[in-house]
Design brief:
Layout lengths: L15 H10 L1 H10 L32 H4 L12 H11 L2 H15 L20 H12 L1 H6 L1 E5 L3 E6 L9 E6 L26 E3 L7 H16 L8 E6 L10 H12 L6 E11 L3 E4 L2 E4 L1 E10 L13 H14 L11 H12 L5 H9 L4 H14 L3 H5 L2 E9 L9 E10 L5 H19 L1 E5 L2 E3 L11 E7 L17 H15 L9 E4 L2 E3 L18 E8 L13 E3 H20 L5
Helix pairs in contact: 1-4, 4-17, 5-8, 8-17, 10-15, 11-12, 12-13, 16-17
């Protein structure tokens, strides 16, 4: 049920003294857990990913020769606070109470009820009335999280983006940066009746919290606020400074929010000033055999390309053999007849994910495990693995190569007027081993035969391409290829992994949080594998944060099974217990980062 702020179900919390006593009493129990964490289940932790290969799981042959998991996909042990263990124990006890859970559910529900929609056509903040709803969210946050606003320094950036600084006692330590975004995508009006509960209700039905933003990304926003509020409530004072940053238009590329936050943080702290950055992204997946966590360590690039054909107009009663629209159709056909070929790269993130699955998930079919294992040294096995994944996994192309999608077509104004202009915009998500320049070169080569066939002049990204037939014919028009919106983005720098301290800290924290969870079905082997965004949504705000730190992790600690129907769609909802797990993760990462020697 939905619980308002003043509900009688929100029972006052125990006193700080009582909580700390509870924490101290539970130290023995938690110590037993960390002793257990060194066994085969919890000593596996670090190799991470947001990309899940939908691989067939069957019972393996009893005599199958398992490869050495540690050699293929090294893992770290569970990491939990030592100096700050009493604080963690107190909050773990509180987070397990019904009183806290109901309050946390209502905190998320209340944020969902503020429809902070990021429209694509928003004018800059201060020039568009639709931004004002973000002021309502800020007022809600101030009321809901009073200690955060009492103890942290808040800065408004570009009017509605928010940055909070939590000062630590040791300025020689680089701050930790936790980010999220306040905005959500619109709800299609024609689908409102299809929702089980109104799309901005924030309704808690006893299992799920419903509404736009319940999955993307108000759990990150409210989860970090809740963790900091609770840490302040029990008297925690950080050694390492913590910075919270919240964008306002991630859903349209972060052009007003994340860019302003980036500039502010660079001006205030400098380049590469943060020890670690955690933003939305990957999560974890619970199967019959294992729990696989996949923090994103890479992002594909993005390039929207416009193909525009200009040709003479006239009356439709005397048409040419091919109109601009007809020639544009040939361009589209040429593109789709020449798709990008997906390949596994042995140095790639996706390939590393497959190796981790083969090493640690004994539910993987013996056939697939054998292909993955042999592909390390055999090109023939690598090709067979590519063929198998292309046949069985619809995400293979998106994870192992550049993709293209014809998304927007325009042309013609009237049925009796020849179209003088026709255009198509094709979206590309660039493989992490490729580049914008390489994609431009390929595109020009692919469509050049079409330009020759129709006698079109060709301008490819500002360069006039000389065709063999030039000078021998009269031009039928112009095919111009360009960056559609001026937003071309190279693939992101890959976050350091392996022996990197921040990667070990994040992986060990994930292992610790999941291993200490009391949720049903979590008592199994846990491993971390490197993940990558397929770019199946607008790329996260982290694309603007590359100069803040080399250690960027796209990870929200949400179980994929806790999402009712996914984000950006009808009936977006998050299982409430999953939100508690996210709050636990943010608490653990703050406490671990505060005392860890793995960070600068």
């Amino acid at each position: 049920m939905e619980v308002p702020c003043d509900s009688p179900y929100i029972i006052s919390r125990p006193s700080i003294k009582k909580l700390v006593v509870i924490g101290l009493l539970s130290t023995v129990a938690l110590a037993a857990f960390y002793s257990f964490a060194r066994n085969s289940r919890l000593s596996t932790s670090a190799c991470g990913s947001a990309a899940h290969a939908t691989l067939q799981a069957t019972v393996p042959r009893p005599d199958y020769p398992w490869p050495s998991a540690d050699a293929i996909c090294p893992q770290t042990s569970a990491i939990a606070p030592k100096k700050n263990s009493a604080f963690l124990n107190a909050l773990e006890a509180e987070y397990n109470t019904d009183e806290f859970k109901l309050k946390a559910y209502e905190s998320l529900g209340g944020a969902i009820r503020v429809p902070t929609i990021a429209y694509d056509d928003l004018a800059p903040p201060g020039q568009d009335e639709r931004w004002k709803i973000f002021g309502d969210l800020h007022a809600y946050l101030e009321k809901r999280f009073p200690l955060v606003h009492q103890h942290l320094q808040k800065t408004h950036v570009n009017k509605y983006a928010l940055v909070y600084h939590w000062q630590g006692s040791n300025d020689s330590l680089k701050p930790a940066l936790l980010t999220a975004h306040q905005d959500v995508v619109p709800v299609e009006p024609l689908t409102v009746d299809e929702w089980h509960h109104p799309p901005f209700s924030g309704f808690y039905d006893g299992e799920y919290i419903w509404g736009r933003g319940s999955c993307d990304d108000k759990p990150g926003l409210i989860g970090t606020f809740t963790a900091v509020e609770e840490l302040l409530h029990i008297g925690f004072k950080p050694t390492r400074s913590v910075v919270l940053a919240y964008g306002i238009d991630e859903e349209r590329g972060g052009i007003s929010g994340a860019t302003a936050i980036r500039d502010y943080l660079l001006d205030t702290y400098g380049e590469y000033a943060f020890s670690i950055l955690v933003d939305e992204g990957g999560g974890y997946r619970v199967t019959d055999n294992v729990i696989m966590s996949t923090p994103g360590v890479a992002e594909k690039g993005k390039f929207d390309v416009r193909f525009e054909i200009s040709a003479p107009g006239g009356h439709s009663s005397v048409p040419p053999e091919h109109t601009s629209i007809g020639m544009l159709a040939a361009v589209i056909k040429q593109l789709e007849s020449n798709p990008h070929t997906a390949h596994l790269n042995r140095s790639g993130i996706y390939y590393s994910l497959l190796q981790c699955q083969a090493a640690h998930d004994h539910g993987l079919s013996s056939h697939l495990r054998d292909l993955i294992t042999r592909s390390r040294t055999s090109d023939r096995a690598l090709a067979a693995l590519e063929a198998e994944l292309a046949r069985t996994d619809r995400l293979f192309g998106a994870l192992a190569g550049t993709t293209q999608a014809v998304d927007v077509v325009r042309g013609g104004v009237k049925t009796n007027a020849l179209p003088e202009r026709a255009e198509v915009v094709v979206n590309h998500r660039i493989d992490i081993h490729s580049s914008v320049a390489a994609l431009k070169k390929r595109i020009a080569a692919v469509v050049q035969p079409v330009a020759e066939r129709f006698g079109l002049d060709l301008d490819a990204f500002g360069e006039n391409v000389v065709l063999p037939s030039d000078g021998e014919r009269e031009s039928a028009g112009l095919l111009r290829i360009s960056d559609a919106f001026g937003t071309a983005l190279e693939p992101a720098p890959i976050t350091p992994m392996g022996e990197s301290g921040p990667f070990k800290l994040l992986s060990g924290t994930i292992i610790g949080v999941l291993g200490a969870s009391n949720r049903t079905g979590y008592d199994k082997k846990i491993f971390v594998a490197p993940g990558m965004s397929t770019g199946n949504t607008v790329l996260p705000d982290t694309k603007h944060y590359w100069k803040l730190t080399k250690h960027i992790f796209r990870y929200g600690h949400i179980n994929t099974a806790d999402s009712y129907n996914g984000a950006h769609t009808v009936n977006e909802a998050l299982r409430a217990e999953g939100f508690i797990e996210a709050i636990r993760f943010f608490t653990w990462i703050i406490l671990n980062a505060d005392e860890s020697l793995l960070l600068e």
